[in-house]
Amino acid sequence: MKLLLSGRALTAGAVAVATLVTGGSAAGAATAPAPAHPAGAAAAAAPDIPIANVKAHLSQLQSIATANGGNRAHGRAGYQASLNYVKAKLDAAGFTTRVQQFTASGRTGYNLIADWPGGDANQVVMAGSHLDSVTSGPGINDNGSGSSAVLETALAVARSDYRPTKHLRFAWWGAEELGLVGSRYYVNSLGSAERAKISGYLNFDMIGSPNPGYFVYDDDPTIEKTFKDYYAGLGIPTEIETEGDGRSDHAPFKSAGVPVGGLFSGADYRKTSAQAAKWGGTVGQPFDRCYHSSCDTTANINDTALDRNSDAIAYAVWELSQ
Ligand code: TRP
Ligand code: CA
Ligand code: ZN
């Protein structure tokens, strides 16, 4: 059974049914506690991702940039501090983390890989985002937004003690802004057997643009449908992502034959009148007027877009892993 309802709606429905059954039973009848994950039960529903938590991560990334010369760029102190922040959260939540080192433009770079213990190691669902900014600004929409939403989704996995059928892996890439260096290094570091175990890679790069669009990558049909279903459930139209196909970390995975997908709220292209008619916002203005600029701060985020996209990430991670 596939439901297009949100996780909360499904949970509320299940609770209502349980209450009805309990209310109709004889007084004093014992009700056996249901196992957390009964065999043959309906699929576990994704949680709502609290936008306040995602924004708290963005504030921390902003503070890190401010304390380190205004950026979180490859090879700079602000990148290292960003990685330490994300890694500490994941370690405390019970993830198995690994820092993968590489060199780009004469400086050391790092990817952070976090595995959630359990699940079928031969079927890996990955979600990732680049954690580096350009040198010209703090990189809060690009890509604190994706980094924070993926982090909060991982923490939600831990909070709900989610035990999916497939294995979950989360990644934060270094040196994307130098040409997808970290993600390409990771894909190349996997043998072909390891690559073949990845059933899907989901990428999130710029998902809180201040004049947002709702773009879904059209690479793998199953992943694309999962995101479209989520947005259909909200009654929000989406478009196919075309603002530079292959301009983010999904590209090395796709080149290696891994099914990929993702979400994007727009960079320096301008919103058309047709797009403003369906999404609101400002016609003729870029989706992100602070793209790669010093003004890509915590003020450069549309909270509604960030919230919807964060919830969509959790929905897809849950749907695609069971
Ligand atoms: N990856 C680009 C950056 O970080 C932004 C970007 C442009 C993008 N076009 C895209 C991201 C399409 C995802 C999809 O600067
Ligand atoms: Ca939410
Ligand atoms: Zn960028």
Count of domain modules = 1
Overall morphology: globular
CATH superfamily: Zn peptidases
The kinds of small molecule bound in this structure are: tryptophan, calcium ion, zinc ion
Strands ordered across the widest β-sheet: 1-2-4-3-5-8-6-7
Structural summary, described in words:
By secondary structure, the chain is an alpha/beta fold. The chain has one domain: Zn peptidases (Aminopeptidase, 3-Layer(aba) Sandwich). Helix content is 41%, strand content 17%. It has helices at 7-24, 51-67, 77-93, 140-159, 181-189, 192-196, 221-234, 250-255, 273-279, 303-320, and strands spanning 96-104, 107-116, 120-130, 166-173, 198-204, 215-216, 239-240, 260-264. An 8-stranded mixed sheet has the order 1-2-4-3-5-8-6-7, with helices on both faces. A hairpin with a 2-residue loop joins strand 1 and strand 2. The model is unreliable at 1-39 (pLDDT under 50). Bound molecules: tryptophan, calcium ion (CA) and zinc ion. Tryptophan is lined by residues 142-143, 176-177, 205-206, 241, 243-244, 247-248, 264, 267.
